[in-house]
Every structure is written in structure tokens, then in C-alpha cells.
Amino acid sequence: MTTHQAVTTKAEAKSTAVAPERSRDRIMAAASELAKERGISGATIARVCQRSGLPVSSVYWYFEDKDHLFAEVIRASFAKWLVSVPRWDVSADTTIAEGLRRVLGRATTTFADMPAFLRIGMQVLLETGEQNAKTREAYIDVRDQSRMMISTWLTAFLPDDVGADLADDLAGLVVALSDGMIVGSQVYPDWEPDQYVDLLAGTIGAIADSAR
User: Fold this and answer.
1) How far apart, in whole angstroms, are the C-alpha atoms of residue 69 and residue 120?
2) What's the pTM?
3) Tens of pLDDT, residues 45-76
4) Residue 151: is it exposed, middle or buried by C-beta count within 10 angstroms (0-12/13-18/19+)?
5) CA distance from start to end of the chain
6) Least buried of 93, 142, 161, 203, by fewest C-beta within 10 Å?
7) d(Cα 199, Cα 207) in Å, to the nearest integer?
């Protein structure tokens, strides 16, 4: 083997070692783009392969089927989104209303770009069939994670005798109203979420304060 061949072989081995993760990411990126352009029903495996430049065999190497692919897109998008929004940290000088305004205000700025987990999840949320069951389950799971984070944050502000139960109820209300704001941001071209964030934060804060 010549020196040139040895160097080439090492380079190919290195490329092969990192290619699997890149291929998986390329497939998910292509699926996410197509879901934005065509909806999840129009984001076929054939189009995902064409967009990613990878063969069908690559898709089925990493994902069981199209449903599994989009479930993973939701999970990856949610994990990335969490890094971009303020943490649900408890501060002694922060009221519930102020904390909600801070976190939800920042979160609503992402509605214009609509993270993939929201865009795809809202498409399948009302479905009850098996076609997109894994995708729907993944979206419900990330919603539950959001609710749990909010509930944990609220619990720290409430009396022990009502904290956990009331916090969970209020967290569910925050998530449900956030769903409504997401829909509103897509329906109304002049959507101004700040006023709704203020209304929501003030309402939740008042309910929590009355329990103290």
C-alpha cells in the first residue's frame, strides 16, 4: 500500500465514523423542512430522501417508519427549543405573574418561526388513528414535560397544603392557553401575543395569590 493510499484509507475511515450521525441529522432536517412546506402528509419518505440526498435504506436504518422519524424530529426540536427559552427558576424577588411574563414572553417570540415540534405536533394533536400515533405521542410527551416544569416552578410559590394539586391545575391551564396562543399566532396576521401573555400571567398569578 502506498503512502497516498494509506492516507486516503484513514480519511475514509474517519469519514465513515462520523457519517452515521450526520446522516441521521440530515434526514431529520429534511423531514422538518418538508413538514413546514407541505405538511406532515406531504412529507413522504421519497421526498425526505430526495431532500436529504440519502437513499431509502438510510432512512429505515435509523427510523422504523415515517411515524418514528417525525416523533424523533419532535423530540430533537423540543430539546433545542428548551435551550433558547428562560429557565423556570425560582427567585425570592420574583412573583408568579412576573415569572410567567418573563418565560412566556420569550417563548411566544418563537411562534413566528414555529419550532418543528409545535408545527408538526399541532398537525397531529387531534388525530386518533394509528397513522401518526408515535408522532402524536411524542408531542403529548413534550407537552407533559412542559406542564411538569411549570408545575414544579409554581409549587415553590404555593403553601404546602395546596401547592402540588393547585400548581398542576394551573400548569395545565398555562399549557392549554399557550396552545390557543399558538393557533392565534397562525390565524391572525396582526397577532400581538404580549397582551395575552400579560392577561394569562395576571390571571394565574391572582389565582395562586388567593391560595396563599
Assistant:
1) 12
2) 0.80
3) 999 999 999 999 999 999 999 999 999 999 99
4) buried
5) 79
6) 93
7) 12
